[in-house]
């Protein structure tokens, strides 16, 4: 997507083909800093410490990390050990394992001398495919936004760029920064905006790491999409007052039965949407579906992060210094689950690269029939 008119991806290989560049997302929105990852250890750190984050992007970064590991040790043992180390960086998003499995499957049959180059090429394919898939998600999701725009503006004669905006609430950052490009939840939004359909986005701040405030607001603003930041607790109130036409969120792992695991707080938005008759859509690449899991609540591992993310805040002082402050008494301890599970019954639809379906085993099987046979 564009930053002030210039197209960017969130990860890109160095020209010599031995390292990758990333945007250090811990520095946003205050500073746009890019970093070069040259070793598998650096790739693992970037994922664990959330310089890169978002399910598809951590998969892409891990794929490059594995290619770097194979340049050092292309043996079967080296491959298995590096894949295990990268997989252990974050537990919830299934794309991480998916990408590592894809690279492993493509290099394992090859002689050791060919593995690093093949892994590098596969990581590039994973990135290019992510861009295409997210673009397709956007095309499908756009139909939902168009329908609402048409309904809201019926008889009002709103032309291109005019009329009542479609108000979309989103949680966390499922934007281009969370993927290689386009984003998942944001892809329909960007495509509607680019098509001249008026959209307005309610951005949940997404405590404790504030991915909404720091990342979603930043990228929407840079692309010129109308938006407003709200505290996480505001969504229900906005819905009660008719100020939200639809919710679109992303997901870190979706079960074969349509349960959706996403950033902590997503479940509460789904409950509020359900109570207020607001459609609640989840946008996802099929690499986010864990076909081996059918009960999201019991089977998906939920990442527990440091309580310090809850008890402290980091931001920019008025004179431009980054500062971390405590917001609790020093003895207060915090629990910090990073994700929650929204049961399929609260999800209006899943927006995938193959189209839109019900959040159910049958819905997913209608789009991915080859998977029904496999599971
Ligand atoms: O902890 P994060 O920032 O990696 O969490 C990201 C999310 O929860 C996103 O909504 C999800 O990965 C979907 S990204 C397209």
UniProtKB/TrEMBL annotation:
Its EC number is 5.3.1.23. GO terms for molecular function: S-methyl-5-thioribose-1-phosphate isomerase activity. It is an enzyme of class 5 (isomerase). GO terms for biological process: L-methionine salvage from methylthioadenosine. Pathway: Amino-acid biosynthesis; L-methionine biosynthesis via salvage pathway; L-methionine from S-methyl-5-thio-alpha-D-ribose 1-phosphate: step 1/6. InterPro entries: IF-2B-related, IF-M1Pi, IF_2B-like_C, Initiation_fac_2B_a/b/d, M1Pi_N, NagB/RpiA_transferase-like. It comes from the Bacteria. Pfam families: IF-2B. The active site is at 252 (proton donor). The record marks 172 as: Transition state stabilizer. Substrate binds at residues 53-55, 90, 211, 262-263. Keywords: Amino-acid biosynthesis, Isomerase, Methionine biosynthesis. It catalyses: 5-(methylsulfanyl)-alpha-D-ribose 1-phosphate = 5-(methylsulfanyl)-D-ribulose 1-phosphate; 5-deoxy-alpha-D-ribose 1-phosphate = 5-deoxy-D-ribulose 1-phosphate. NCBIfam families: eIF-2B_rel (TIGR00524), PRK05720.1 (NF004326), salvage_mtnA (TIGR00512). Belongs to the EIF-2B alpha/beta/delta subunits family. MtnA subfamily. PANTHER family: METHYLTHIORIBOSE-1-PHOSPHATE ISOMERASE. Catalyzes the interconversion of methylthioribose-1-phosphate (MTR-1-P) into methylthioribulose-1-phosphate (MTRu-1-P). Also catalyzes the interconversion of 5-deoxyribose 1-phosphate and 5-deoxyribulose 1-phosphate. Part of a bifunctional DHAP-shunt salvage pathway for SAM by-products. This is Methylthioribose-1-phosphate isomerase. It comes from Stappia indica.
